[in-house]
Amino acid sequence: MTKSQKQNLDNVIRYTLLTVWLLIVLFPLFWIVATSFKPDKDWLAWPPVYWSEEPTMSNYNNVWGGAMEHAETQYAQSVQKPFTALRNSTIISFISTFLSVSFGAFIAYGVSRYKVLSETRMFQLLMLRMVPPIVLVGPLSLYYTTIGLIDSLTGLIAIYFITTLPYAVWMTKSFIDEVPIELEQAAEIMGANRWTIITEVVFPVIRSGLLATFLFILILTWSEYLVAFILSKTDAVTLPVELAKYEGSSEGRVYGRQAALSVGITIPLIIVGITIRKHLARGFSFGMIRK
Amino acid sequence: MARSEIMLQRTKRYKKMVLFPLIASIMLILGPALLLQLYLSFNYYSIYSEGWWASEWYALDIFSEVVFDSRFHIAIVRSLGFALASTVGCFVIGFGLALLMYKNFRLQWFYYIIFIIPMLTVPIVIAYTAEMILYQKGPLNGILSSIVGRDMLIMWITNPDIALLTVVLMEVWNWAPFSFIIMMAGLASLPKEPVEAAQILGASRLKIFYEIQLPLLRPIIVLALVLRFLEAMAEFPKTWAIFQGGPGTATETIPVLIYLNTWYYFDWSKAAAMSYIVMMMMVVIILTAIKILQKENKRIAQVQAN
Question: What is the pTM of this model?
Answer without folding.
Answer: 0.92
